[in-house]
Amino acid sequence: FPTRRSSDLIDEYGSMFIGTANGLARLTNRQFVNYSSSDGLLEPYITGVCQTADGTIWVSTQTNGVYQYREEKFIPVKRPGLKNFQRVKHLAAIGNQVWWATSRGLVITENGIPISNSIIDSLAGKTIRKITQTDNGTIYITAFRRLYRISGDTLVDITGNLTQRAYSFWALEE
After folding, report:
1. What is the DSSP code (8-state) at residue 49?
2. CA gap 19, 71 in Å, rounded
3. Which of 16, 50, 119, 143 could connect to 93 by a Cys-Cys bridge, CB 3.0–4.6 Å?
């Protein structure tokens, strides 16, 4: 079993996906399955695992982008415009969208296809560390020395007076 857990997910069937710096494992009915390059996962360092509302499992890696889990295989998400966003720090499912926290900004995909909006444009070039959606639906984004809240279609910087100090936000948990 891989060590040093970096992310996990319990899917709609009760299977637990566990992402680590050494690979991805799935626990189903008390049995572990370890995934590797033979399953299509080209890098072992898993930075995120999420499931969209349609039941699709998505996995992100430290330097090799995002994969969609289909028919017991991991298929890399390869689209024009995504080549510069392969260093994924975190992955979050918001409805049927997958939000990627990267060292070059925020990426939002629907069915593996990147979309654009003013929030993505506002975060271009920023190091995004984590995306958190609270139980009431509010979305927070932690970035290098910044904390944002999404209000409707607007990105609101809620860092406040902390920008004058050397604080760095890594995550926000509810």
Report:
1. E
2. 19
3. 50
Residues of the chain with pLDDT under 70: 1-7, 161-174
Residue 80, SS3 per DSSP:
coil
Map tokens 């930075």 to a residue: 47
Planar angle of CA 164, 133, 15, nearest 5 degrees: 130
Q: Which two tokens stand for residue 54?
A: 């349609």
Q: What's at 131, amino acid-wise?
A: I
Cβ neighbours around 26 below 10 Å, total: 18
Question: 139 forms bridges with which residues in the sheet?
Answer: 133, 150
Helix (H) or strand (E) holding 118: helix 118-122
Return d(Cα 172, Cα 170) in angstroms, integer.
7
pTM for the predicted model, two decimal places: 0.85
